[in-house]
Amino acid sequence: MNRKNYQTKPHISSLEKHNTMHEEIKISEMLKYQRELWKEHKDTWSPMKPEAARESLLWMIEEVSEVISIIKKRGEQEIVNDIELRDKFIEELVDVFMYYLDVLNRYDISAIDFSYAFIKKHNKNIVRNFDEEYKNSYRH
After folding, report:
1. Which candidate, 12, 32, 74, 113, has a CA 20 to 30 Å from the CA of 119?
2. Does residue 91 fall inside a structural domain?
3. Which residue range is the domain that position 86 belongs to?
């Protein structure tokens, strides 16, 4: 979030009202926060329409590359052991997730729809034999 905007505007965002230091945020709340952020920037950001989801996905991929860059340049152990680096790594993962939430919002996928699909996919994956399915995938 751009703190400068909040210094010049009299309101406090719903995210700032949420005590994020000691509790989890629900998917529905994250979707709401992303819509709120979009409303703050709607004059300069892509419209909240399915046609603009592609752009959010491309920005998300760019953020994934920043996560990969940290892993490649600093390594897993440094990410785990260096508090400042860990914070930067988590921030980049949050950027990825924020763009992912933008995609969900642009396609009007609710937290309930997403949760249902997640559980359904988890239940499917829990009984899959990935080794068996993919053992011939890369053979000529």
Report:
1. 32
2. yes
3. 49-122
